[in-house]
Description:
Elements: H1 2-21, E1 32-33, E2 46-52, H2 57-71, E3 77-83, H3 90-102, H4 106-118, H5 127-136, H6 141-148, H7 151-166, E4 174-177, E5 181-184, H8 190-209
Parallel strand pairs: 2-3
Antiparallel strand pairs: 1-5, 2-4, 4-5
Helix pairs in contact: 3-4, 3-7
Amino acid sequence: MRILIAVLGLVLSFGAYAQALAPKFKAGEDYKLLDKPVRTITPGKIEVTEAFSYTCGHCFHFEPVLKAWTAKQADDVAVIKLPVVWRAEMGHYARIMYTGQALELSDKVDQTVFDAIHVHGKRLASEADVAVLFKDLGVTDEKFKKTFNSFGVSSQVQQAESRTRSMAIQATPQIIVDGRYSVTVKKSTGHEGLLQVIEFLLDKVRDEKI
């Protein structure tokens, strides 16, 4: 009888140990593997790419959550924003983001554009509308137009369109980790669940590099 109890104890202990070792999140259920890995653009870092759109309501609500999470990350993590370009007109909004980056106003531009669209109901669909927004941020009309229509910004918009396709972006916000793993928000777990999967994948990538 004692031997049977001991054996049962070992079986239960092994089961608990195996359960502890089992992955918390599973491929195909909690995240997906891209059919073809995408080259990352931040050497030496684990890249977390947020595919988003200024016109996306979910992205608007996720913005402060991601910003707070990003501030807590280790030096080996790089968070990159990718403005999705599914159609030609979406290039206009991508151009807004890259103009903000070129003028070193990224944080202010992102929040101001989100608020303009989702709080104040402005579409910002024309270059003139966007010029007013940048002017309110202290950018002259001349400097804005020169940057907005520059070769550098135009090239980045084209690259965003290409990366939207290569990363197989189908929804926003969508997160790509290390150019290989794709994660989207689930209604059942929300933003917190999304961040947990991202952190799980970051640890997974770190373990692979050991």
